[in-house]
UniProtKB/TrEMBL annotation:
It holds the Pfam family Por_Secre_tail. It comes from the Bacteria. It comes from Phaeocystidibacter luteus. InterPro entries: Secre_tail. This is T9SS type A sorting domain-containing protein. Coiled coil: none annotated.
């Protein structure tokens, strides 16, 4: 099970505390701004709290200590969110995150692991003292108790790279997801399709999609807008066992964030990507 997926963040208005003016809710973003189904795909950028456009040069990663065999029920794991300004703007960096299924039901329980985060109504966010990056990088640790979470529960993250101009204008927001596989009676190597990787992200002309097949299967990929509308669907036909790379053209897609599904047999993997 590969668990890397970059991009993140959120942050709302002065209420998020990213601007350097006095505000009444500097302890984190409002709930429902992680870009998740329960958030109605909203971040503080799409909700009008901040303005400035999508993150471009910045990098967001989500990692966990869940083993390759998948997570066990009622077990604590550490989820780490890292945001790198990567030479772009990010004088102050904050985030919002949640763990949900595809229908928007929260999965497991999130709590702070490092004292630098708060959790409100199943949404995690930064604190007023955890906004300042070091050498352009900020990170936060969360403890996730899996409870009875479903297979392919997803970590949704939105990150706000603020410019520190004392207002809510000119800030840049990015999102990222990480799909969590649940342990089962079969090894991860027996999954029909696994090890999905997208690059470059953001994409300009083509999105390269790497994955592995445990056996020969018909492979179909679909691209969806953040409103849930299917934009593209292509059947790649029967592909053999082993590693594969698909080259997905994105020149006809408008600048923005999308979700790609790839299906082989009865297993579907999904990741977000951006087009710039």
């Amino acid at each position: 099970m590969k668990q890397s997926l970059p991009i993140v963040a959120l942050i709302g208005l002065g209420i998020l505390g990213l601007s350097q003016v006095g505000i009444s809710n500097s302890g984190g973003s409002p709930t429902g701004r992680s870009g998740s189904p329960a958030s109605s795909n909203r971040t503080c950028l799409s909700s009008g709290c901040h303005s400035g456009g999508a993150a471009s040069t910045q990098n967001i990663t989500i990692t966990s200590d869940i083993p390759a065999t998948g997570f066990e029920e009622n077990t604590n794991y550490t989820i780490t969110i890292s945001a790198d300004a990567n030479g772009g703007q990010g004088t102050r960096i904050g985030f919002a995150a949640s763990v949900e299924n595809a229908g928007g039901t929260h999965q497991g329980t999130l709590t702070s692991a490092d004292g630098r985060t708060n959790v409100f109504n199943d949404f995690a966010t930064h604190t007023s003292t955890s906004l300042s990056p070091t050498a352009g990088v900020n990170s936060w640790d969360l403890t996730w108790n899996s409870g009875t979470a479903e297979d392919q529960s997803t970590v949704y993250v939105a990150v706000n790279f603020a410019n520190g101009n004392g207002t809510t204008s000119g800030d840049q927001v990015g999102t990222q997801t990480l799909v969590l596989d649940k342990a089962s009676g079969i090894g991860v190597e027996e999954f029909t399709i696994s090890d999905m990787k997208l690059y470059p992200n953001p994409a300009v002309e083509e999105l390269h999609l790497d994955f592995s097949l445990a056996s020969s299967n018909e492979v179909v990929y679909s691209i969806f807008g953040m409103d849930g509308r299917e934009i593209m669907n292509k059947n790649e036909g029967l592909l053999g066992t082993g590693d594969h790379t698909l080259n997905v053209p994105v020149t006809e897609l408008e600048t923005g964030t999308y979700l790609i599904h790839i299906q082989a047999g009865d297993r579907v993997l999904a990741e977000r990507f951006m087009v710039q």
